[in-house]
């Protein structure tokens, strides 16, 4: 689904992404790991159109999408979430979801005056869809709660819910587990798996929690110093000497050997 070819993103003399090439297969949940400063988030930002690449190409379903802006990629079904959730804090959870779909009739002045019936129908359909999403994510009890009052994990669930309000094909998750307690992390993991199996979502996620990665992801891609260091199953990654030295640490290998 996504193919990245020899991608570079430089900031002056600093090569944040330095010749990265990788493939994300349709229907997969692909993990992206690596030490801080490996270029993971910068890679996400280039793929998602937040940053222009210095050189290289990104393809989606065979189409060159290199440098396309986020709103264009959004309509193609490529979405991303952020390490820090970007909710509308003064709006309810339900309202946050209803804001997502673009090209709503109520966005034009003409329809606001002369298309009120159509607007009402659209809003009723969006409200129903939003309630279904909140129920799917097991947070329907929070539908009328201001999004700013949610916990960090609940905000991550709400952000995941936004992707369900449009025809998402692939979702890039940036540290969805950061600052989330174990119970909510399990709920988020369950939602990701259900979206993958039941709705055909493809995911690529940056994550530091190796247990979470091991539960959800196959394959796992390791980045270091701006390029891809290794790819394989979580077991293969944990046994890879180059990965151990660059990221996981020798202690993990010794621990695995003992157990």
TrEMBL record:
<keyword id="KW-0813">Transport</keyword>
<dbReference type="InterPro" id="IPR017871">
    <property type="entry name" value="ABC_transporter-like_CS"/>
</dbReference>
<dbReference type="InterPro" id="IPR003593">
    <property type="entry name" value="AAA+_ATPase"/>
</dbReference>
<dbReference type="GO" id="GO:0005524">
    <property type="term" value="F:ATP binding"/>
</dbReference>
<dbReference type="InterPro" id="IPR051120">
    <property type="entry name" value="ABC_AA/LPS_Transport"/>
</dbReference>
<feature type="domain" description="ABC transporter">
    <location>
        <begin position="2"/>
        <end position="250"/>
    </location>
</feature>
<dbReference type="InterPro" id="IPR027417">
    <property type="entry name" value="P-loop_NTPase"/>
</dbReference>
<dbReference type="GO" id="GO:0016887">
    <property type="term" value="F:ATP hydrolysis activity"/>
</dbReference>
<protein>
    <submittedName>
        <fullName>Amino acid/amide ABC transporter ATP-binding protein 1, HAAT family</fullName>
    </submittedName>
</protein>
<keyword id="KW-0547">Nucleotide-binding</keyword>
<dbReference type="GO" id="GO:0005886">
    <property type="term" value="C:plasma membrane"/>
</dbReference>
<keyword id="KW-0067">ATP-binding</keyword>
<dbReference type="Pfam" id="PF12399">
    <property type="entry name" value="BCA_ABC_TP_C"/>
</dbReference>
<dbReference type="InterPro" id="IPR032823">
    <property type="entry name" value="BCA_ABC_TP_C"/>
</dbReference>
<dbReference type="InterPro" id="IPR003439">
    <property type="entry name" value="ABC_transporter-like_ATP-bd"/>
</dbReference>
<dbReference type="Pfam" id="PF00005">
    <property type="entry name" value="ABC_tran"/>
</dbReference>
